[in-house]
Amino acid sequence: MARSSARNLADAAGSGTAEVAGPTPMMAQYIEIKAANPDCLLFYRMGDFYELFFSDAETASRALGIVLTKRGKHGGADIPMCGVPVERADDYLSRLIGLGHRVAVCEQTEDPAEAKRRGPKSVVRREVVRLVTPGTITEDRLLDPGSANLLLAIGRRKVSDAAFAYGLAAIDISTGRFALSEVPGADLAGAIARHDPREIVLSDAIHADPALARLWAETRAAVVPLAQAELEPASAERRLREQYGVATLDGFGTFTRAEIAAAGAALLYVARTQLAARAPLCVPTREEAGTTLAIDAATRANLELTRTLSGERVGSLLDAIDRTVSANGARLLAEHLAGPLTELAAIARRHDAVARLVEDRALRAALRDALARAPDLARALSRTGLGRAGPRDLAAIRDGLDVALALGARLADGTDLPDDLARLAKILARADRDLVETLRASLADELPLNRRDGGYVRVGYHPEIDEARLLGSDSRKVVAALQARYAEETGCRTLRIKHNGLLGYFIEVPQSVGEACLKGLMRDFVHRQTMIDAMRFTSVELGALEQKIFGAADRALALEASVFDDLSARIVAQAEAIGGIAEALAALDVAASHAELAVELDWCRPQVDASMSFVIAEGRHPVVEAALRKSGTAFIANDCDLSGEGRGRIRLITGPNMGGKSTYLRQNALIAVLAQVGAFVPAREARIGRVDRLFSRVGAADDLARGQSTFMVEMVETAAILNQATRHSLVILDEIGRGTATYDGLSIAWACLEHLHEANACRSLFATHFHELTALGQRLARLDNATLKVAEHRDGVVFLHEVVPGVAERSYGLQVARIAGLPSAVVARAGAILKGLEKAERERPSRPRIDDLPLFASLAPPPLPEPAIEADDRLGLLLDAIDPDALTPREAMEALYRLKRERAAG
Ligand SMILES: Nc1ncnc2c1ncn2[C@@H]1O[C@H](COP(=O)(O)OP(=O)(O)OP(=O)(O)O)[C@@H](O)[C@H]1O
Predict the structure, then answer these.
(1) Centre of ligand 1 from the C-alpha of residue 767, in Å
(2) Atom 16, ligand 1: which residue's CA is nearest?
(3) DSSP letter, residue 646
(4) Residue of 2, 675, 590, 695 whose CA lies nearest to 303
(5) Residue 47: partners with Cβ closer than 8 Å, 6 or more residues away
(6) Any stretches that span the bilayer, and where are they (predicted)?
(7) Residue 876: C-alpha distances to residues 829, 866, 882, 883, 893 (Å)
(8) How far is 333 from 174, CA to CA, in rounded Å?
(9) Which of 217, 222, 627, 788 is the most exposed place for a label (fewest CB within 10 A)?
(10) Are 105 and 132 in contact (CB under 8 A)?
(11) Pick from 92, 28, 32: nearest CA to 57
(12) For residue 659, how far is its CA from the centre of ligand 1 (angstroms)?
């Protein structure tokens, strides 16, 4: 985060030693405000501009590419300055926030005339009304319509001598959402990844905990530590009570101490950033532990649920399934996808709603049609509550409520609505028709962006506003008449009455006529300015007219503002109901989106129950299928059965490179996620016993940023799975052990498989190029082998992408290398080496087989003897067989490694 120090300024201002003449009163005010906000760029309001000074100006001018100038001196040196026009401040703010800066917005909080009355040297009072930080923005132009903008506060409580439970408070100020939950320490990283916050607030003690340092270093959120002393439990509770104006929190349910600590930190930070108004937050909802599918950060990344590995939305599962038509709906869909459910009844209710919308094409079309017209009710409501709304926000609330009423009525027409749809219909029907009518009657058809521009109250709604406006426009006609009269009286046809910010209204005549006026041609003309070829005058009559014009315009604006305030107050009084309606519209959009997708791509309703089933018939990978569809290629559907009834609970997949192993693994994980999200799934049939935790690991790429090697990352992540997966978990392991020497990797993969089979006993898919592992199929009762079919074709190979029982004959790495464009000489040489290595392997006197090795301890007590084979012996035997003249030792090692990946089982 960028830091711009005010210390130097404050020191200089305080000591005065470096001052030549002391700072001007305005600069003294600036310095004081800046010193109170040292971590922010200070947007200091001066008329129509926000000005930045000193190092803030240098930082902002570099970041925004705006001109750096200077204004006056401080301590004998020029003061750097740059400024942005108030009207365009949002654009600049969004760029600064995007770059990780925090901005303090300092407004003039009194009329300049007021300041003048206090004395000639008085400066207009200014105050910081708001800190703009990544997690607390509310302006549409700064927000992504389809993504929540979360501030996540973290608190904790000790659950044992060595362990903490972490409370999470997720607040989206832009919609008022406020959710509390608690997770064990092991799940903290996954919970942060699920929320994907823009900003994290926590105590300095949590921030300084070395066990968590990696989390703060790795998150893309801005991390803000607060002093522990400010976050004591009593003050956290008090803040919650004050926010909702209640004497006790009992009415909200029972929260843990960690959740209250998190809520207190969140509210403190919100209060600190939203200085001008209390943020209108919904009553916090509490998520019970275990009601969502636990997905850790690495699994989320690997499965590319809401973002691809490179951070893009395009290419993610979310992108592939999103058929929502409103921003509200798009945000809820992302939220659902990040937290699939585990409660069977809740999952079934969502499926029921989707099923109904799949069947009822007319209802689905009507819903989607209406929802596409619904503006972003939640964000408009939040801005209204914060006093930041413009006329278009009021119109958005009008139109959103209007759509709610229409949809409520449309749904109420339907018979036998499933529970979820009936509940949503009831919420929608509660929209206040009277409020909609008032907003319709009061707001003009064309609306300005800002309320200060005026002109948004409909003609005919408020007689006094109409009168004042008329006076204003009539006065303009009177100005024109006065100009004609003065022109006639002076005999000057080019006489004009003009207006500027300095003189207000004035009469402009050519120099010669001006001279005559000065000599008495026009006695009531008062000279104001002499230009090169013109002279400017005012007159008493013109002055009076000006008063009338401005008076009328000001009065019209003030009256409009009071109409605006009344409407806002009515909306704020109903904030809870309107917030509920916004959520209901979003939920309808999500259900209709799932239904649209299911119809469009022929997806089926999955059955989710409490069993250990995992039976997918003709499953597909939604993202790969969509990509192939674009190029006109068909996706090959594949079955999967991990139920352990007759077939295995662990499926070991071997197969050629490029055969489709990874795709198959992931598609099954994604089907489980979609099923528990409440969506239909890309399969002909799916029966899934509820999954409590989902793990997915790929033999990882180097993580240089973390300073960890490929293999270290792979092992840390694998350790987490073996330690945390329960019987009800689903585990996807893709080429575990590939990041180290062949035999080390093989042994680790082998031991992991045994552990999954015996200790975790969970449903698992395990893809590998270690073909030796397939022999475990005969020894581990619940492990079965599957492979990806290929057809050999002359000297090439065709990948059929079909998963069939059995083991792979070969990996076809050389064929893939050829397709990839490896020089033909290298491919030919690799072929010769491979033949040599295979021959050596065949002729080896005592070829070790997996059956020669002892069983996993729990399968074959008593204790394990030492492994019968020393890996180095095997290595030596193989190397002996290679012609030493043909290969350097390094080449030999590489050839050996390739051989291990290439060699067919047995
Ligand atoms: N079921 C399928 N139907 C059609 N095409 C598929 C299918 N599965 C995979 N493919 C295609 O094959 C490509 C390779 O698939 P994938 O990465 O899953 O192979 P892999 O066996 O894991 O390869 P490697 O072992 O080299 O990592 C995919 O990008 C996709 O284009």
Answers:
(1) 12
(2) 660
(3) S
(4) 695
(5) none
(6) none
(7) 22, 20, 10, 13, 11
(8) 17
(9) 217
(10) yes
(11) 92
(12) 5
The answer to whether 137 and 105 are in contact (CB under 8 A) is: no
- The closest-lying atom of ligand 1 relative to the alpha carbon of residue 621 is 1
CATH superfamily of 141-289: MutS, connector domain (3.30.420.110)
Q: Is 658 in the pocket of ligand 1 (CB under 6 A)?
A: yes
Regarding the beta carbon of 619 and ligand 1, being less than 6 Å apart is answered no
Which atom, in ligand 1's list, is nearest to the CA of 803?
Answer: 1
Among protein residues, the one whose CA lies closest to atom 5 of ligand 1? 635
Please check whether residue 312 is in contact with residue 572, taking contact to mean a CB–CB distance below 8 angstroms. no
Q: Which residue has the tokens 């350790």?
A: 719
| Assigned architecture for domain 607-902 | 3-Layer(aba) Sandwich (3.40)
858, 783 contact by CB (below 8 A): no
Fold adopted by 463-565: MutS, DNA mismatch repair protein; Chain A, domain 3 (1.10.1420)
Can you give 269-315 as a three-state secondary structure string?
HHHHHECCCCCCCCCCEEECCCCECEECHHHHHHHCCCCCCCCCCCC
CATH number of 7-132: 3.40.1170.10
* The predicted structure's pLDDT at residue 616: 96
Cβ distance 799 to 659 under 8 Å? yes
| CA–centroid distance, residue 753 to ligand 1 (Å) | 23
CA–CA separation, 38 vs 22, rounded Å? Answer: 21
Paired tokens of 467: 């009168």
Domain boundaries, the chain: 7-132, 141-289, 322-432+574-601, 463-565, 607-902
Give the CATH number of domain 322-432+574-601; options: 3.40.350.10, 3.40.50.300, 1.10.1420.10, 3.40.50.2300: 1.10.1420.10
Rounded CA-CA distance 621/629 in Å is 12
Rounded to the nearest whole angstrom, what is the distance from the C-alpha of residue 663 to the centroid of ligand 1? Answer: 5
E strand or H helix that includes residue 193: helix 188-195
ipTM of the complex as predicted: 0.98
Instruction: Give the pLDDT means over successive 10-residue stretches in the chain (906 positions).
Output: 38 39 84 91 91 94 90 86 88 85 90 79 88 85 86 94 92 92 92 94 94 90 90 86 84 87 93 80 86 91 90 92 96 96 96 96 95 93 90 96 94 86 94 96 91 89 87 79 93 92 88 91 90 91 84 86 95 92 96 98 97 95 93 91 82 87 94 98 97 83 49 78 91 80 76 87 91 83 87 72 83 74 77 78 61 52 33 40 45 51 47
Asked whether this chain's domains 322-432+574-601 and 463-565 adopt the same fold, the reply is: yes
Say how many Å lie between the CA of residue 746 and the centre of ligand 1: 23
Any atom of ligand 1 within 6 Å of the Cβ of 623: no
Nearest-5° Cα angle at 25, 21 to 27: 85
Binding residues for ATP: 655-662
- On whether the CB atoms of residues 581 and 428 are closer than 8 A, the answer is yes
Is ligand 1 within 6 A of the CB of residue 659? yes
